[in-house]
């Protein structure tokens, strides 16, 4: 099915100047960027985004990291976009990420892991609308 998913290029990858290389992987895999912006997240915005992890021991480090520099937030659209993006990213922990995935190639640690991608249709819907109004998403198909 044609899906949309939320993708974030995290502060570590922005600092490494690999925004273009990462976007290129999405495009080469047949995903279209239908919305995009660079933002410096406030603590409040980052905490709200990761609210489901609020009770986890890594929550504070996660918010510290995600507010440590600008991120690039985009909506990817395509056939099975949610799973396609997760395949491109590789495992959350870069030590476990398959060769050739974004995290294997660009991530340094489980926190500085280069990218985020929605993990289900439900989270994609919530995460896309957390960052983008309907009129900020452009029809491409
Ligand atoms: P992300 O997909 O952005 O969602 C939550 C993030 O928490 C995850 O990527 C990791 O960067 C970070 N994180 C840190 N420690 C863990 C952990 N033990 N399990 C899952 N995610 C973790």
TrEMBL record:
Q: Which cofactor does it need?
A: Mg(2+)
Residues reported in the UniProt entry to bind ATP: 10, 58, 86, 92, 103, 113
GO terms (molecular function) for this protein are: nucleoside diphosphate kinase activity
Give the E.C. number(s): 2.7.4.6
Q: Which Gene3D superfamilies match?
A: Nucleoside diphosphate kinase-like domain
Where is the protein found, in the record's own terms? Answer: Cytoplasm
Query: So where's the catalytic machinery, residue-wise?
Result: 116
Q: Which UniProt keywords apply?
A: ATP-binding, Cytoplasm, Kinase, Magnesium, Metal-binding, Nucleotide metabolism, Nucleotide-binding, Phosphoprotein, Transferase
Q: What class of enzyme is it?
A: transferase
Q: What does this protein do?
A: Major role in the synthesis of nucleoside triphosphates other than ATP. The ATP gamma phosphate is transferred to the NDP beta phosphate via a ping-pong mechanism, using a phosphorylated active-site intermediate.
Oligomeric state and partners?
Homotetramer.
Q: What is this protein called?
A: Nucleoside diphosphate kinase
What species is given as this protein's source? Microbulbifer variabilis
**Which gene is transcribed and translated to give this protein?**
ndk
């Amino acid at each position: 099915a044609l899906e949309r998913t939320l993708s974030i290029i995290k502060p570590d990858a922005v600092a490494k100047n690999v925004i273009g290389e990462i976007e290129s992987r999405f495009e080469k895999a047949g995903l279209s960027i239908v919305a995009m912006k660079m933002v410096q997240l406030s603590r409040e915005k980052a905490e709200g985004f990761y609210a489901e992890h609020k009770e986890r021991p890594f929550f504070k480090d996660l918010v510290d990291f995600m507010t440590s520099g600008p991120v690039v937030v985009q909506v990817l659209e395509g056939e099975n976009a949610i799973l396609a993006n997760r395949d491109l990213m590789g495992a959350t922990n870069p030590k476990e990420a398959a060769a050739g995935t974004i995290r294997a190639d660009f991530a340094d640690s489980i926190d500085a892991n280069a990218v985020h991608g929605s993990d289900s249709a439900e989270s994609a819907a919530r995460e896309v609308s957390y960052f983008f109004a309907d009129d900020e998403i452009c029809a491409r198909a």
